[in-house]
Design goal:
S-adenosyl-L-methionine binds at residues 47, 49, 74, 95, 120, 136. This protein is an alpha/beta fold. It has twelve helices and nine strands.
C-alpha cells in the first residue's frame, strides 16, 4: 500500500491555511472506529484461534503429560481450554473480559479438571509446584506475559501463541539474538514451534502468529553463583559501545582475555553483539571469568561450541 502525504490547503497568496484538516482524514477515522465490542477487542488484542484442527495441534504441543498442571492465560471463550483439559491433569484458565469469562465458564461447566478465573492473569500468583503455561495470548501483552513466566519459580515450560515477528526475534530467526534470550539462556531454552496463519484467527489479525516455546533446563548451563557475572557481561555487550562485541567487552576486560574468550566461543573479532549465539555467550563468559565447566557445560554440543561461518 502506498502512503500519500495529505494535501495542504493554501490560500490565493500561497500560504497554507491553518487549522483545517483534509475531509478524508475525518471520514477515515469514523470508518475505522467501529462499535464498542470491536474497540474492546482491539484494546485487548483479542484474536482467537478458531480452526478446530489448529486448536487440537496446539493442545498437543502445550500439554507434555496426562497429569500436567496447565495454567492458561487469555482463555477467551474456552475453545482452547477444552482442548487443553482433554489432555492435561488440570487446567487453571484466566480470562479478564467478563463477557468472555461467562462463555468460558459455560463451555467448561462439565469439565471437572478446569478451574475458571475471571481476572487479570498478570496479577495472579503462580502455582507453588511445577506447572506449564499455555495461551493464545493477547499480542499486545506478550512481553509482560513472557516476563511473568520467566520469573515464576515453578514454571516448567511455556507454550504460547504470539506474533510471528516476536517469536522469530526471540529464537534467532533472522540470525540475530535478542538480549532477553541471551540473558535467560543458561536457564531456559527458546524455540519456535511453527507459524500459525492469520486466517486461522477470528477476528483476523494483520499478521501471522507462531507457537513460541520456553523450556526450563533440568540442569542450568551455568552454576547459580556464576549468573551475576554472566548477566553483567551480557548487559555490557548489549550496550553496543565501540560497535562490536569485542570493543564493548574490552571496556572492562583485558584485550588478551577478551580475544581468548572470543576464540574459544568461535566468535569473530568483528562480530556484532546480536550475531553471537546464546551458547557462544555461555562459553565466552566461562572463559572470560574462569568459570569451571562454564565453557559449554550442558549445552549438548550446540552451535556455541563450534566456530560460526
Amino acid at each position: 500500500m502506498r502512503w500519500c502525504r495529505p494535501r495542504v490547503l493554501r490560500c490565493p497568496s500561497g500560504r497554507p491555511v491553518l487549522g483545517r484538516k483534509p475531509r478524508t482524514a475525518t471520514l477515515n477515522q469514523h470508518h475505522h472506529r467501529g462499535g464498542p465490542r470491536s474497540q474492546a477487542r482491539r484494546a485487548l488484542s483479542q484474536n482467537f484461534l478458531s480452526d478446530p484442527a489448529a486448536v487440537a495441534r496446539y493442545a498437543r504441543a502445550a500439554v507434555p503429560a496426562p497429569d500436567a498442571l496447565v495454567v492458561e492465560a487469555g482463555a477467551g471463550d474456552g475453545r482452547v481450554t477444552a482442548a487443553l483439559a482433554a489432555r492435561a491433569g488440570s487446567v487453571i484458565a484466566y480470562e479478564i473480559d467478563p463477557r468472555l469469562a461467562a462463555r468460558l465458564r459455560a463451555r467448561c461447566a462439565a469439565l471437572a479438571n478446569v478451574r475458571c478465573v475471571t481476572g487479570d492473569f498478570l496479577a495472579a500468583r503462580p502455582p507453588s509446584g511445577p506447572f506449564h503455561l499455555a495461551g493464545n495470548i493477547p499480542f499486545a501483552s506478550t512481553s509482560r506475559i513472557v516476563g511473568w513466566a520467566l520469573t515464576a519459580p515453578g514454571l516448567a515450560s511455556a507454550t504460547l501463541i504470539t506474533q510471528l515477528e516476536y517469536a522469530r526475534k526471540r529464537t534467532g530467526g533472522y540470525g540475530r539474538w535478542s538480549r532477553l534470550t541471551v540473558r535467560t539462556w543458561p536457564e531456559f531454552g527458546w524455540e519456535m514451534g511453527g507459524r500459525v496463519p492469520r486466517g486461522l484467527f477470528r477476528p483476523v489479525p494483520r499478521v501471522d502468529g507462531a507457537v513460541l516455546r520456553l523450556t526450563r533446563r533440568a540442569r542450568p548451563l551455568l552454576p547459580p553463583e556464576a549468573m551475576g557475572d554472566y548477566l553483567r557481561c551480557v548487559d555490557l555487550g548489549f550496550t553496543g559501545r565501540g560497535g562490536t562485541l569485542r570493543a564493548s567487552l574490552c571496556l572492562r576486560h583485558p584485550r588478551r582475555r577478551v580475544d581468548a574468550a572470543l576464540r574459544a566461543a568461535g566468535i569473530a573479532p568483528g562480530a556484532l553483539v546480536a550475531d553471537a549465539h546464546p551458547d557462544q555467550w555461555v562459553t565466552l563468559v566461562g572463559v572470560l571469568h574462569g568459570i569451571g565447566g562454564g565453557a559449554g557445560a550442558g549445552s549438548g554440543g550446540g552451535p556455541g561450541l563450534r566456530p560460526r561461518h
